[in-house]
Request: fold
Amino acid sequence: NSVDGGKTWTKIAGYQMGWYPGNSRAVFAANGNICFGGLWDSQKPPVYLSTDKGKTCAPAAMKPFNGGAIGMGRNPSNGDIWMGIAEEDPKAQSGGVYVSRDNGKSYEMVNPFPKHGNFTQFEFTAKGDVLAVNDHGILKSSDGGKTWKDSWKQNVGAEDWAIGHDDTPNRNLYFSHMRPKMDTPAAQVFKDLVLRSTDGGETWQAWDAGIPYPSSLQIYATHFSQNPGDGKMYASFRRGGGLYRTIEALTRPATRDKK
Reply:
């Protein structure tokens, strides 16, 4: 936790947060609760909750099982907290998509695995629809997670890569997957490093002009964020890719969350 703009940091929890590199495992609930997951311990629930700004933490109301929360996100349209649970024992049938409607105190399963694979990233449209990333691509649900359809399925391993949004009223979406090496046949199919959707994930267009295509490294973005100060979109890239930002500011940022 930092209270001085990031100059100094204080450790507020000592739990193992998981091992996937690009996933969001901590979210702020609408009332300020901190919800975080990633635990892999059969004796503990996979997600914890802090109601006092991180001073103390307690397990959320979930049964323990040998799995972990590998992706979390909060829907700004209604405050629901979404979580993807992976498990090491498929026979246990505890893994799946979970939702909390009480600021992280308890969670209920809305869709089981392995039908759609492990959802490691969640994002939300301006209308409140849910998008989730797994190793098959991006799936979208408009009915609270009961059913899902393909939003984008041409990818070569999206499980750990980033999906994000800007803070414009339209809440445009951004996605990055691992781009193949230039000298491989797959590079001609999956050549776009960053994709952008302006229609809630119905269609995606290339949005990576100016980002070099490495001949040997398979770089990919792990995070997207619009700077509220200059209005530009920033993207950090793993495997030596570096930090990039848009040349021009995006449309004036809107309020981040609806109360």
User: Anything to note?
Assistant: The longest strand covers residues 67-74.
